[in-house]
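Page 47, continued from p. 46.
Same chain as before, 448 aa.
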Amino acid sequence: MAEPNGGDVPLSVLSQRHPASTDTDTVSTTEEATYPDGGWKAYSVLCGSFLGLVVNLGLINSIGAIQAYVSTHQLAGVAASSVAWIFSIYLALAYAIGIFIGPVFDRHGALELLVVATILLFAGLMGTASSTKIWHFILSFVCIGVGNGVGLTPLVGVINHWFFKRRGNSTGIATSGGSVGGLVFPLMLRHMYSTSGFVWAIRALAFVCLGCMVSAVVLARERLTREPEPLADSESKWKTLSHKIGLFSLSKLRNRTYALMIVGVFCTELSLVLILTYFATYAMAQGVSESTSYLLLTVWNATGILGRWIPGLASDYYGKFNVNILTLFGLDLCLFVLWLPFGSSLKVLYAFAALGGYFSGSILTMVPSCLAQISPVSEFGERYGILNAVLSIGNLVGLPIGAAIIGNGSVHNYTVFVGVVGVLLITGTTFWILSRASIVGTRVNVKV
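Result:
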């Protein structure tokens, strides 16, 4: 039966009615009242987070444009599976580092982390510009990946310090920076590859990223930090040390809702990374030109801007989990109705890029909002870091597995690849549904 007021039920009330939701950590009414949810300081933090995520998520979304170029130029004589390892290591580091950064952010704030991230990102991109051999690219992308990993958690985490009622909308706006970067960077690279060459194209990208990150360092600030809990005298030396420097605790995985969410995010995020990495080369295998394949990625990222903002805004009214699951259903349909059966048609590829880019926006946008809904704000960084570390495992092995499935790049192999991506999406959607069910059971008309 529907709840009063359109099913808008606080989680604290749900936890009293449904034993399944006792795994969920919620925000107290008193703590909720202290969130600014607006004002000059909050919006300046939002601006800083947006600019920082233009770089941190924008680079991740643009990886296909860089991989497609180096695979056919500097590393043309290198096996595709070997080239894939460069970018899989990069993506793995971009997420894995968060398991250490999250607790540091919770206890010490964002400033020092963002300064380190800025230096590493700039140095890594400048190194990439001068790379000619595979080990050059590996070292450069290791540097970029560590920089991404150091910067991502604080840039996402600061939003949850300043917004509560408008958290979905503000997170959507901030993370849409990733789509802006994913839109602008490939266009810029595509133009400069032909006019200025690879070296100056990547150097120009490095300086753009430097400007955005310096702005993020100035604007993105935390509102509170977590005080260390007292330890008993009998605690082990390792636990005492890890407690002092703020290392993660895997005890957070005992939370059933959180654990189910991690599996769901793992599968959907891995499917998204595979699509973004190989969509351009898939189009080329279908006879599409290299420039048009870049344009397909541009369409994907352009619609992704709305795909991050609109679901985030809607989630403040209809529930974070509800909106996320609906958008995942939309992406599932796009893949199985458009891409898998009709991927040989350029018109269908454009349609899939437009619709898939929109629906996929929630994969990165709604995860922080849903996680914040079931986490105390002082533990968000640690939980987000653990989640990203799990994702890094998929990113490390996922791209080489994808390259192995694609093999010689035949149309048949790419069709099998799309099928594997589809299975990952369906599995991820299922675990998101189970995560929601652990909060409210099987009821549908509930805002959660």
